[in-house]
Specification:
This protein has 523 residues and is of the alpha/beta class. It has 2 domains: 262 residues, FAD/NAD(P)-binding domain (3-Layer(bba) Sandwich); 173 residues, no CATH class. The strands form 7 sheets. Strands 1, 2, 3, 4, 5, 6 and 21 form a 7-stranded mixed sheet that branches. About 2% of the residues have low confidence.
């Protein structure tokens, strides 16, 4: 009897860790949630696998100010449904700003209503994760011992780890201008204006050496050349000014004010003109909360992200923690250090951690803002031309239209002449912000090359150059691509077709019925 009980227990354990569905989505980002819901609503059985402990990615990780500038009218389908549900929560028709906990609750409700099975804390194995037969993925394994099998897979992760494990071609970092004939590609000039410091500042720490993360101009490639680097990461901080919900900003473990030498240099150079906005971009959220984005010397760890896409899981965790410690230390620095002007300290101390946000992570966000990582090299590579001169696509599955938005790539110590001597000055390199007209997202940009993977769709790390990706990489567009990927996956399962052979009129008809906006750009 005891032996039989043990066998039943083992069988139950195996059933838990060997999951099969029509569609398996890897990555519980907002794109992954949209993909899973769309596939389930189209009639597929769906499993959503998330490496971390939360659904929503950046939507539930602190990015409460939606990147919908100039594209509100392009957002339809499940993405629009999410924002309308957020609106109902706040008594509005639609809400473009919302609290992280509200976003996570809405996404979990959508998944539950659609009948999606969700597995949290399951990270795809670092080595030997995927079994394939010819170009078809059969299954993948996780580091926790689970196995997931499906007819069609979707990689909706920010990192593209399933895509890589499946042997799909990809790239990392910015290309040269000559690669795709893109005028904004490659290493940028030191242009004045937004995101440069308002006054000249020193790039050195107290020891006279370059501060952490600062590179010397002698190490740079020529203008327009490729260097494999990409824009910085940060944490989007959700703080509150409500005394009833506010917890004090704690002194971080291992805090050292010397790490913020650039902030000290900036404060000294600004003098009485220093403002909190020189360091933090504070957007107000409902219920006296914030979405804090980067500014100049800010929560961005400029140059600290370049290893992340190709790093081991252990190294990624180190980079992740380094970004979080940097953000924690910066807000503590601004609130407490005596060299910070009193008006900034007073303003900073209005804010504290929100007691009702991120309770499982010390009230700090649980998602690193991975603005760019791996990018697939698939059936069609989007470039700057697809945003400006070739905006219409016969296989459009959704609309985009956010500007080409690349945050600072690196801090550079540049030699300048200041009468009567030569000196080093800190400059920011890499920032690009260029408006574009609405453009259509082609289905082919979600497809790997067919001989590499014939039953995989990629909805976050899509096939695009750095420049094109910089316009695509916003959460509404991730959701739009996820919605299309999920619907396509379910239709491919029903028709028993490779995802590459799906009839486009049928997919577009289904998406239009689901209120996805796929109309021709500019019409």
């Amino acid at each position: 009897m005891k032996t039989r009980a043990i066998c039943l227990s083992l069988l139950a354990s195996l059933a838990l860790y060997a999951q099969r569905a029509d569609v398996v989505v890897y990555g519980g980002t907002a794109s992954g949630a949209a993909a899973a819901v769309a596939a389930a609503r189209t009639g597929a059985s769906v499993v959503l696998v998330e490496p971390g402990g939360h659904i929503g990615g950046m939507l539930s990780g602190g990015l409460g100010r939606t990147d919908m500038d100039r594209q509100e009218h392009l957002i339809g389908g499940i993405a629009r449904e999410f924002f309308e549900r957020a609106g109902r929560h706040y008594g509005q028709p639609v809400a473009w700003t919302f609290e992280p906990s509200v976003a996570e609750r809405i996404l979990n409700e959508l998944l539950k209503e659609a009948g999606v099975t969700v597995h949290l804390g399951q990270q795809i194995a670092e080595h030997g994760a995927v079994d394939k037969r010819d170009s078809r993925i059969l299954r993948f394994r996780t580091t926790q011992g689970a196995v997931f099998e499906a007819d069609v897979f979707i990689d909706a992760s920010y990192e593209g780890d399933l895509m890589r494990a499946a042997g799909v071609s990809y790239t990392v970092g910015r290309e040269a201008r000559a690669k795709y004939d893109e005028s904004y590609a490659g290493r940028q000039d030191f242009l004045p204006g937004n995101h440069q410091a308002r006054v000249p500042i020193s790039p050195n720490g107290e020891d006279g050496r370059l501060a952490p993360y600062v590179v010397d101009e002698s190490t740079l490639v020529n203008l327009g050349e490729a260097d494999g680097k990409f824009q910085s990461y940060c944490f989007r901080l959700c703080l509150t000014s409500d005394p009833a919900n506010r917890l004090p900003l704690p002194r971080p473990e291992g805090y050292d004010p010397k790490r913020y030498a650039l902030a000290a240099n900036y404060l000294k150079a600004l003098g009485d003109s220093a403002q909190i906005g020189d360091f933090l971009g504070i957007s107000l959220m409902p219920n006296s909360k914030t979405d804090i984005n980067a500014s100049r010397i800010s929560t961005n760890v400029v140059g600290g992200s370049w290893e992340y896409p190709e790093a081991s899981y252990a190294r990624r965790r180190e980079i992740w923690n380094e970004h979080l410690r940097w953000a924690q230390g910066l807000v503590y620095y601004l609130a407490n250090e005596p060299n910070v002007p009193e008006h900034i300290r007073k303003e900073m101390n209005r804010w504290g951690l929100a007691r009702d946000e991120f309770p499982g992570n010390g009230h700090w966000p649980h998602q690193l803002y991975i603005r760019e990582g791996r990018r697939m090299l698939g059936e069609y590579v989007l470039t700057q031309h697809d945003l400006q001169s070739h905006r219409r696509k016969y296989d459009s599955i959704g609309m985009a239209g956010y500007n080409i938005d690349i945050r600072e790539v690196q801090w550079v110590a540049r030699t300048v002449y200041r009468f009567p001597n030569m000196a080093k000055e800190l400059l920011m390199e890499g920032y690009v912000s260029v408006p574009v007209d609405p453009w259509e997202i082609p289905y082919r940009a979600l497809l790997p090359r067919q001989h590499e993977a014939s039953n995989l769709l990629v909805s976050s790390c899509i096939s695009a150059s750095t420049i094109a990706y910089a316009s695509f990489r916003m959460e509404p567009q991730y959701m739009i691509a996820g919605h299309a990927a999920g619907t396509a996956a379910a239709l491919a399962v029903k028709a028993k077709l490779p995802v590459h052979h799906l009839p486009m009129p049928e997919l577009q008809r289904r998406l239009s019925e689901q209120k996805q906006l796929i109309g021709e750009a500019g019409r």
